[in-house]
Amino acid sequence: MNESVRNSRFLKAVRLEPTDATPVWFMRQAGRYMPEYRALRSKTTMLGAIQDPELAAEITLQPIKAFDLDAAILFNDILTPLMGMGLELDFVEGRGPVIGNPITSLADIEGLMTPPAAEAMPYTAQAIRLVTAELDGRGLPLIGFVGAPFTLASYAVEGGGSRNYEKTKRLMYHQPEAWASLMDKLVHVLGDYLLFQVQSGCAALQIFDSWAGTLSPRDYARFVAPYNARLIAAARESGVPVIYFSTGTGTLLRAISALGSDVVGVDWRIGLDEAWAQIGYDRAIQGNLEPLLLQAPWEELERQAKAVLEEAGGRRGHIFNLGHGILPQTPPDNVARLADFVHEFSAKGVVR
Ligand SMILES: Cc1c2[nH]c(c1CCC(=O)O)Cc1[nH]c(c(CCC(=O)O)c1C)Cc1[nH]c(c(CCC(=O)O)c1C)Cc1[nH]c(c(C)c1CCC(=O)O)C2
């Protein structure tokens, strides 16, 4: 990582250092809301795009070229590491991701493979190298990522998206040893994949635990938190900062803070001020505008973006983001305007 990336707004905020303005990036910033993305994606499949390093690099850079953002996130998906483990992943148009051979038994878990990321996902390293060659010149960091073990286990067990996670919870409650063995394998594969992304050039890592909010605090503490803590510790060994992001977890924030990530990402279901008080001011926070607001009239969007910045209270260590990914119907102009507004408003001195 070069000096200008090290001294980027984003990495300074992560280290709780003062910045000239609040850094901003958006989850799913490369995606279907951008006409440039739709043009490239229409020529191939989701997996085809992910596995083509030049295409993946170009898609990653599209929002960086279009908007004034403070970080890029690699174009990929949280589910790709499951393929190397022997699970058949497909992205079905209009339906989302599907696993053709979901896990149903202890024998299935024992049969899961744990190949090194360098073997299973060499295309990721190539894409990262192409992206960082461009980002280095702009002084911008690239964020690598994985899905958290629980969120990935839920896809592996349910076979796709789910409303109530019944099969996943049944595995936890009925076969706790099988659950532990599945989570162990995921921690192993994901930890190795995170280190591989840093070795390839990523300057920060994010762990997406998008579905953790379905769990009771007791079950989160017993069945999920220990694996997250292990994964975060392994990721931090790489020397780059780690963001832990989840949704629907306003009641779990103390447990989440104890996991030891450098940054905690929060969704819009809790005020940023209340969330930060629980997480602790010795830790950076990322969030948390409701994504649907990017489709609202500018006056409403501006009012609510301002409210998020005011809730951050001028403290060091706020990274502006949405509470979840950008939605496909979002007008790109609002993304441009919001990024500029965050910089201009925070530079006025509300935030230091
Ligand atoms: C649960 C989950 C998935 N993927 C992801 C999560 C966790 C975070 C979240 O909740 O948003 C995370 C994800 N997905 C994608 C990224 C890349 C980085 C980023 O842009 O933030 C990341 C970090 C690209 C993607 N992943 C997907 C797309 C859309 C692909 C397309 O049709 O072009 C993109 C850009 C597909 C995907 N992938 C997944 C679903 C449910 C879908 C279908 C939903 C949809 O179609 O929007 C699984």
UniProtKB/TrEMBL annotation:
Q: Which UniProt keywords apply?
A: Cytoplasm, Decarboxylase, Lyase, Porphyrin biosynthesis
Query: Quick one: a GO biological-process term for this protein?
Result: protoporphyrinogen IX biosynthetic process
Q: Where is this site: Transition state stabilizer?
A: D77
- Show the stretches that span the lipid bilayer: none
Q: Which residues bind substrate?
A: R28, Q29, A30, G31, R32, D77, Y155, S210, H324
Which EC number(s) are documented for this chain? 4.1.1.37
Q: Where in the cell is it found?
A: Cytoplasm, Cytosol
Q: Which GO terms describe its molecular function?
A: uroporphyrinogen decarboxylase activity
Q: Has UniProt tagged this entry with the keyword Nucleus?
A: no
The reaction(s) annotated as catalysed by this protein in its Swiss-Prot or TrEMBL entry are: uroporphyrinogen III + 4 H(+) = coproporphyrinogen III + 4 CO2
- The residue ranges of the Uroporphyrinogen decarboxylase (URO-D) domain are 23-32, 143-159
Which EC main class describes this enzyme? lyase
Tell me which GO cellular component terms the UniProt record holds: cytosol
Q: Hey, which pathway is this one from?
A: Porphyrin-containing compound metabolism; protoporphyrin-IX biosynthesis; coproporphyrinogen-III from 5-aminolevulinate: step 4/4
Q: Which HAMAP family match?
A: URO_D
- Show the NCBIfam families listed in the entry: hemE
> Subunit info?
Homodimer.
The family annotation for this protein states: Belongs to the uroporphyrinogen decarboxylase family.
This molecule's function is given as:
Catalyzes the decarboxylation of four acetate groups of uroporphyrinogen-III to yield coproporphyrinogen-III.
Protein name, please? Uroporphyrinogen decarboxylase
